[in-house]
Amino acid sequence: MSSEFQNTLKRLKPDKHRAWLEPRAESELEFLGTTSHRPAKLLYDTTVYIDILQGRFPQQGEAMLRATEAWHSPVTEAELAATCGLFDPAQSQTREIIEQIAAVIDRRPSYRTITPDPEVWREAGVLSGTLARTQGYGRE
Fold first, then answer.
1. Burial class (CB in 10 A: 0-12, 13-18, 19+), 60
2. Is-contact 43 114, C-beta < 8 A?
3. Helices 118-135 + 4-12 axis angle, to 10
4. Buried-state track 9-38, b at ≥16 Cβ within 10 A, e below 16
5. What is the pTM of this model?
6. Which of 105, 103, 111, 54 is nearest to 75 (CA)?
7. SS3 for 41?
8. Rg over CA atoms, the chain
9. Which residues pair with 69 in a beta bridge?
10. I need a labelling partner for 46 at 20 to 30 A (CA). Which of 54, 84, 91, 102 fits?
11. Does residue 8 contact residue 123 with C-beta atoms inside 8 Å?
């Protein structure tokens, strides 16, 4: 009898993936400022929060964010929280920056937060290991 993990391995077939992934040309990729496609939903990456907090997010992108349904991830919250731990408490700006990050996190509605289930985490583990092997990343 197969376990769920064995079923995941059979479906994803990490042993079949051996080739180095070739990146697509940037001209083939869609970016918020260069596409006419308007997504109905967006899952924010940590860089979106950071760029907004630092005032570097493009104005055209902000309009797109306001026009879409925003979704969030516990992973981005953890990455922002880690940033708070990295700031030097002796620096004068640290408290204000941490308060800004906390405010961003607190504004995220819990009903729009996607929490991966064990199956998704298991698949992510297999896929990240496969990617690390095929791209020649270190085992750590």
1. exposed
2. yes
3. 40
4. beeeeeeeeeeeeeeeeeeeeeebeeeeee
5. 0.70
6. 105
7. strand
8. 19
9. 41
10. 91
11. yes
* Token pair of 27 as six digits: 């001209």
How far apart CA 51 and CA 29 sit, in angstroms, is 20
Q: What is the pLDDT of residues 64-83, one digit of tens each?
A: 888 889 999 999 999 999 99
Taking every pair of C-alpha atoms in the chain, what is the biggest distance, in angstroms? 60
Computed from CA positions of residues 126, 130, 133, 138, in that sequence, does the dihedral angle turn out positive or negative? negative
Q: In this model, does residue 23 exceed pLDDT 70?
A: yes
Beta bridge partners of 72: 113
Q: Does residue 119 contact residue 77 with C-beta atoms inside 8 Å?
A: no
* Structure token pair of residue 59: 């104005």
Give the residues across from 46 on adjacent strands.
Answer: none
Number of other CB atoms surrounding residue 76 within 10 Å:
21
Q: CB neighbours of 100 closer than 8 A, spacing ≥ 6?
A: 53
Nearest Cα to Cα of residue 48 among 30, 70, 29: 70
Domain boundaries, the chain: 36-115
Q: Which helix (H) or strand (E) holds 135?
A: helix 118-135
